[in-house]
Amino acid sequence: MKISKKTLFSAALILIMGIFSCQDSTSPVTNYTVTVSGVVNRLVSGSPLDSVVVTLNNPFRRDTTKKDGTFNYSFVSSEKNDVNTTLRLSRFGFYDSVIAVTYG
Of 4, 46, 80, 89, which is most buried, counting CB atoms within 10 Å of its CB? Predict the structure, then answer.
């Protein structure tokens, strides 16, 4: 069976690319748990608002506030960087609000 030089070169190139694309398997993997939580209150009276849909833009998460106005997101990230994103608060019969947040 005769193997051409092009086939041998292609196989060697694929093997080398595969070796260099691998991550260092000996380095420890660190995961960070990120928690975004808060309370949604009425502006005038300060009483908590329930049933407000709170949508986190990056990464996408959605939660609805409880009777005491609280919401809570948790997710795992492999990078420890500050992230700038937005929270969108919406409820039927109210104006939507968009709040810029930074977490990390």
Answer: 89
Q: Are strands 61-64 and 97-103 parallel, antiparallel or unpaired?
A: unpaired
For residue 9, the cross-strand partners are: none
Give the N- to C-terminal CA distance of the chain in Å, as an integer: 58
Half-sphere exposure at residue 21, Cβ-oriented, CA atoms within 13 angstroms:
6
User: 């948790």: which residue's tokens?
Assistant: 74
* Collapsed DSSP state (helix, strand, coil) of residue 13: helix
User: Taking a C-beta distance cutoff of 8 angstroms, is the pair 87, 101 a contact?
Assistant: yes
Flag whether the pTM goes above 0.85.
no
Label residue 5 left, alpha or beta by phi (over 0 means left) and psi (-120 to 50 means alpha). alpha
